[in-house]
Design goal:
This protein is mostly beta strands and about 150 residues long. It has one domain (about 1-150). It is built from one helix and ten strands; from the N terminus they run αββββββββββ. It has a six-stranded antiparallel barrel with strand order 1-2-3-9-8-10. A hairpin with a 2-residue loop joins strand 5 (about 80-85) and strand 6 (about 90-100). The protein starts with a helix and ends with a strand.
């Protein structure tokens, strides 16, 4: 169990570090707010009102009983989020599959959706993550659907 916990922890820290490195500067955000978990959500929309990027953090629970908070900003490492926008509504999904240097495999799916206007944005975010250590230990972490608002 300890091997699995450290595997999940190191992978989550890696995802958070990647997300932190890719965050645009605060002056680039057009909407900043909180999730219902009191975690940050930030979006950048273009002049036409389409969401171009975002950053958020979300907490889920893992099969080992531990909570796991991950940061998410669409990556530029070959697994970018796919945006879909229709009018003021938008949605994005990112699926990331990686094998770490220690052989730990991860498969993470993140989804965000919402509406955006010049004055505010709101929606939901969710993640599901599956991890497998070289020893065969497997763990799943999953968040609930979490609401967010960004005035």
């Amino acid at each position: 169990m300890l091997v699995g916990l450290s595997m999940v922890s190191s992978l989550a820290l890696g995802l958070a570090a990647i997300a932190q490195e890719q965050r645009p500067q605060p002056d680039a955000w057009t909407h900043t707010g909180l999730t219902e978990q009191d975690l940050p959500v930030q979006l950048r929309a273009d002049k036409a009102g389409k969401v171009r990027t975002f950053y958020t953090r979300i907490t889920g629970s893992c099969s080992n009983g531990q909570p796991r908070t991950i940061g998410w900003r669409p990556s530029s490492d070959g697994a970018p989020a796919r945006f879909d926008a229709r009018g003021p509504r938008f949605a994005a999904e990112e699926v990331s599959q990686r094998t770490a240097a220690d052989g730990t495999y991860s498969h993470v799916t993140l989804r965000i959706s919402g509406t955006v206007s010049p004055a505010a944005a709101s929606g939901t975010v969710r993640y599901v993550a599956r991890y497998r250590a070289p020893s065969g230990y497997a763990s799943t972490c999953e968040s609930p659907v979490v609401r967010w608002t960004a005035p």
